[in-house]
Amino acid sequence: MSARFVVLIMVIVAFGALTALALADVGYFGILEPHFKSFGGAQVFTDLVIALTLVMIWMVRDGRTSGINPWPFVALTLVLGSFGPLFYLALRTFRSASRAPA
Fold it and tell me: What sign does the CA torsion over 47, 52, 55, 56 have?
């Protein structure tokens, strides 16, 4: 198991715990609500949308060359944000590590 894979799993678990706490505290729409109350919140939300759109474009292009179907991860990104790219990177890292000669 590569160090990169371990770090990705740790990030997924930590971010998942934070997300679970946020969902328990304010719910799914409660996470989004503050972004529509001020221009500052709208700027952060817009930045996130732009960044994740660029990442989804990269996942689709990278999926063609790496042999990974990116569409489940794109769908996951649209529903759960950064979890899509994190899981994509974890799978990509795991697959490349398992193909490396021992």
Answer: negative
Identify the CA nearest to 59 among candidates 77, 79, 33: 77
The model's pTM: 0.89
pLDDT tens across 48-63, in order? 999 999 999 999 999 9
Buried b (16+ CB within 10 A) or exposed e, 67-98: ebebeebbebbeeebbbbbbbbbbbbbbeeee
CB 34 within 8 A of CB 26: no
Q: Map out the domains of the chain as residue ranges.
A: 3-99
Q: Show the tokens assigned to 31.
A: 């996470």
d(CA 62, CA 72): 14
